[in-house]
Each structure stands twice: as structure tokens, then as C-alpha cells.
Amino acid sequence: MFGFVRIGRPATPRPRCALSIEFARPVYIAGVAETALGEVHDQTELSMVALAAREALREAGLRIRDVDGVFVNYMGEQGSVQVGEYLGLEPRYADSSDLGGAAFEAFVHHAMLAVAAGRCEVALIAYASRQRSKRARRVAASGSGTSVYGPDPFHLTEQFMSPYGAPSPIGAFALMAARHMHEYGTTREQLAEVAVAASHWAALNPKAWRQEPLTAEDVLGSRPISDPLHRHDCCLVTDGGGVVVVTHRDRARDARSTPIRVLGAGEGHSYWHVSEARDITRTAGYQAAADAFGMAGVTARDVDVLEPYDAFTINVIMHLEELGFCGPGEGGAFVEGGALRPGGALPSLTSGGGLSYCHPGALGVLLLIEAVRQLRGEAGPRQVPDARIAVAHGVGGISVRSTVVLGVD
Fold this sequence. Notes:
- This protein has 409 residues and is an alpha+beta fold.
- It has helices at residues 45-60, 80-87, 103-116, 155-158, 170-184, 188-202, 216-221, 249-252, 285-296, 313-322, 331-335, 353-357, 364-376; strands at residues 27-34, 69-72, 93-95, 122-129, 140-141, 146-147, 150-151, 167-168, 224-226, 229-230, 240-248, 260-269, 305-308, 389-396, 400-407.
- The chain has a nine-stranded mixed β-sheet with strand order 3-2-4-11-1-12-15-14-13, with helices on both faces. A two-stranded antiparallel ribbon has the order 5-8. A two-stranded antiparallel sheet has the order 6-7.
- Helix 6 (188-202) packs across helix 10 (313-322).
- It is globular and about 55 Å long.
């Protein structure tokens, strides 16, 4: 007998449980590499991935013929099949899950499970974008059928937002910021501090797009984009990407740099359109973080370096709450006094982040690369002393979140 199908939100959220898993095959990130960054006119997205893959595999002590898992997302028409074809691969395991900018931390999660289960030995996570050189990033009003994420075939929810003309996705994050300010007293100055912290880290990174440190006055005086967000509250628009190689301990032994262990990972999504949110100050990041920290057997107090996805300054304030560095509504107060800056209590955004270093449409893969380099002690002038545990926290769409906890054995 067929039951009824109920359309709509469940009355009460389903209970979640934290994970605690001890893998018989510990899994590592053995190699990382950025693609060309900034403006890239002499390469295609596929050639960018190929060059970064060669560098990351060399660092891992592996060859392209060793790769039997391919994880690709957010490259337009170039998914795992097209990237595999270009690289000459016939993978045993492939994943092109569409989780927006959160895909890459989620891919570490998926690759971790696949490698631990023996479904593949060497997983290649890849991404490249030329959105700046192609001028491909568009900010569209809701209801237009397109956004920075591409065509939107799901107009059932768009119809409720289109009369208000909010630009997508900036308008959604502006609503989040405004609500956070209303509920918790978060200030524009606290939002600005996130951008200032990122710029101070970027000043130490020769690859950063913007290397001049910002002041709070610079941020607050920059052009309004979507109230309460100003230009410097919003991420860069650049080309770029990267490759991450995930494998098990036996295959990582020949790596040229220290392999970094994947201690835990988690992911979650609760909505894509902000109109469907139950509470726009609370996202699936709480779920992702609980699963990742539970699997790793650590807490926020154990973290030495944080790489949060900073598409907008409000993201970072909310991430601090999601990850347990402070309570709900306390993120604004947490960042005061330079807590995220070099020498601060919680070194964060250490590459300069999406606000000052690079934002090629999807930042998540670059968060992983920076976290790995910090744990290896390879970050040069921006190196966080004695870093042993790092967290990368990805964002996709509006409420897609993925968290990876990394550590040094």
C-alpha cells in the first residue's frame, strides 16, 4: 500500500549523531598544488588542472598512472569524466557531486571513505576556473533563472524572491548579516574586522591578489553592495584552482613532503534558497562540524589554524559559531581585538582567504592547500608556529557546509 508523500519541511529536525570512527587504513593528503592564479590567459581550465596535478602528484611521490579516483566539481561542463579523459585516466571511483564551493572538503570526506574501504588507492581532487579572465561571473537578481552558480531550473522557490530583486547570492548573505546584527547586536565594525584580518595575512603571501593591508575605515568606506555588506565585505573575483591528492599510509610513504592525516570530515545541507531557511543565522555547518570533530576526536580548543570559507565577512563570524569556537551570536565579539590576525588567539584566513588572496568561484580546494602547508611548516612568513591541527570549513550555495579536520601524525 502506498503512503502519502508530504511536501514541505518536517515538523521537527531529525536527530543527528556525532561520528567516531577508527579507520584500519589511515588516510592522508600526500600532495597539494595551486593552479595559476589571478588572471590566466595562456591556459585552459583543463590544462590548469593538468599542470597542478603533475605538481601535486610529484609532491606525493606518485604518478598519474597511480590515480584511480577522480573528484571534480564546479568546472562548468568539465566534470570528472572530462578531466579524467584529459589526464588519460580510467578511474575506478569518480565523484562530481554538486555541492558548490563546499564540494572540495566534501570530496575529502568521500575520498577518505573510498580509500579506507579499498574502493580506490589514490584520489585526485581537482578544480580550476577562469571566471575573471572570461568575465564569466554574473550577479543576477533572483528570479532571472541564472546566478553565479549558473542556470537555475528550480523556479518554484525563486518566485517568492524575485519581486524583491535581491542579487544572488550576495543578497542572501546580506540578509544573513542583517538578521545576525538584529538578533545578536553584531556590528559593521565586527564584520569589517574579518576583512582586515584577511588582508593582514595576505600581506605576508606573495601570491595574494590584494596585498595592501586594509583598515576598518577602508572596509566601511568602500562601496555599498547589498546592505549591510560593502565591497570589502565581499570576496575577490579571480582565476585559479588547485589539486589535492588523497591516499592511504602505504602509498603516502614516498611523499616528498610530510603527509597530513585526515582526522575527520563531515558535511550537510539544509537549503539552497534563502527563502527556504528556517533560521538564516543557523546553517548546516553545525551538523558538518559535529560530524568532523566527532570523527577526529578533537574539539575547537585543539585547533591551531582555521581556514574558513570567507566569500563574505558574515560567513566567518557564523563559521566561528558553527565550529564551536564561540556560542551562537558570539562570533562578532570573538573577532574583536585581532583574534584572527597574525599573532591572534585563533590564526585564521592565513593565505588571505577569498577576501584578499584568491576567490576563483569556489574557494574550498585552496583552503585545503593552505591548511596542509601550515601543518607542514611550509607557509613562510605567514607560518603559524607549532601548528598540529587545522580545520578547513567549506561553503556552497547558501547553507551547504563541509568540514575537514587535518593533523600531523
